[in-house]
Amino acid sequence: MSKRLRARFAQTKREGRAAFVAYVMAGFPDPDHTVPLLLGLEEGGADVIELGIPFTDPLADGATIQHANEVAVSAGITFADCLEMVQEARAQGLSAPLVLMGYENPLLAYGEKQAAADAAAAGADGFIVVDLPPDEASTFRQACEEQDVSFVPLIAPTTAEKRMKTITSAANSFIYCVSVTGTTGQRAELPPSIGELVTTIRRYTELPIAVGFGVSTRDQVAEVGSVAEGVIVGSAIISAIEAGTVDGCVERVRSYVERVTGRSVDKS
């Protein structure tokens, strides 16, 4: 659980590289492909996987992930379905740490304590809850701690430095650093201030820092990996899923991850 996340970041540190964290939406492009996609991400080189929980109002997400979310919501994918997908992926051999990412409302509807317990039982390692600040998450954080699943907090460029100590103290595996203001999505260039933001966060924690929002190409992965312990990619993976037939989506995603992580020589 939390230990698996910590162990993976420790492993990539020993190997002298940043962890590659890959995001995919549960139920997209359809429910039958989620488990194969999770396995394909790991096969391609993903060190940690984020599985998106569909929600009707994904305000932090850009157009690409919003579309994937809409498809999953239309397919009727629930939080319980997400847990079944995690359980099935583990049964089929998925070994990478997996974090459930989404919004607070589905967890409240399911029951926060039950959500943490059932996530642990399914084989999930943690939660990223975009709209749940640590200082408003005492009940859920306690539930996660009891089940040894991580609560992963977010820090953005707009986060006041005086709040960073509070936010980082809620973490026990890694910190999610949002690289830009605004929503998720691919960008031609990343802001030059990423390194400065990571340096500021490091004043308040020794935990790994993973940077997401806007990262898509191999060069960007390398750029972020030079200043942070983790690199998070989401929208580009959704785009790879959409780039051809549904039947070919797993191979496209596997190949994309291989390229951007440098496992293959073709640059992306």
Describe this structure in words.
- The protein is an alpha/beta fold.
- The chain has one domain (2-260): Aldolase class I (TIM Barrel), CATH 3.20.20.70.
- 46% of the residues lie in helices and 14% in strands.
- The protein contains 12 helices and 9 strands.
- Strands 5-4-3-2-1-9-8-7-6 form a 9-stranded parallel beta sheet.
- Helix 2 (34-44) links the parallel strand 1 (19-25) and strand 2 (48-52).
- Helix 4 runs parallel beside helix 6 (112-122) and helix 6 (112-122) runs parallel beside helix 7.
- The chain is globular.
- The chain starts with a helix and ends in an 8-residue tail after the last helix.
Features:
single chain; 268 residues; alpha/beta; TIM Barrel; 46% helix; 14% strand
Q: Report helical residue fraction.
A: 40-55%
**Count of domains:** 1
CATH fold call: TIM Barrel
| Largest beta-sheet details | 9 strands, parallel
Specify the CATH homologous superfamily. Aldolase class I
CA(first)-CA(last) distance: 33 Å
Q: Using the 3D structure, state the CATH architecture.
A: Alpha-Beta Barrel
Content of β-strand? 5-15%
The CATH class is identified as Alpha Beta
Structural class: alpha/beta
